[in-house]
Task: structure prediction
Amino acid sequence: DAGVIQSPRHEVTEMGQEVTLRCKPISGHNSLFWYRQTMMRGLELLIYFNNNVPIDDSGMPEDRFSAKMPNASFSTLKIQPSEPRDSAVYFCASSYRETQYFGPGTRLLVL
Amino acid sequence: GQQLNQSPQSMFIQEGEDVSMNCTSSSIFNTWLWYKQDPGEGPVLLIALYKAGELTSNGRLTAQFGITRKDSFLNISASIPSDVGIYFCAGDQETSGSRLTFGEGTQLTVNP
Result:
């Protein structure tokens, strides 16, 4: 079975540009999570969806970040405008019940 | 928010040695999960624990859900070089899997 799919795997962009990260959860999973990982702060939950509805976005750093889940098989995390401090690895994870399965991540570098 | 205290932060061991790491919290968790992260990859689930006192094995890995619900440990027996990576514990205070709290990770280095 395919796991969580994320694209792109790597993204290098310049400050001020819009960045869109994509995620396809595991089929049948009803919850989707976006995380950010940095050396300084570890794994941080940004937002999660349950049945395509955003439940908790308290981890979203600021208004420059937005996430959508238009259907059960696709979600996006958008940063506009991007800043150097947004450089990190962004993970998407999905779950059916208690256990979350992570994608391979998108390594973002904002110059 | 709730925090998990994971220790040790790093370990340097010789191939063949056993490894033990643990997570503790002041709060009760209903689920404990252990993940391993290889460089450049996402965390991969190793073991999931759902009941207090539960002891579960996955090959050379053994994990236990503490009886108080406030701690968990992971043991790796007869370590091999491919065990190298960062090991994370994670706890869920609900049963819906809605929000995991992660430990800070244990960086494991295995010398051949």
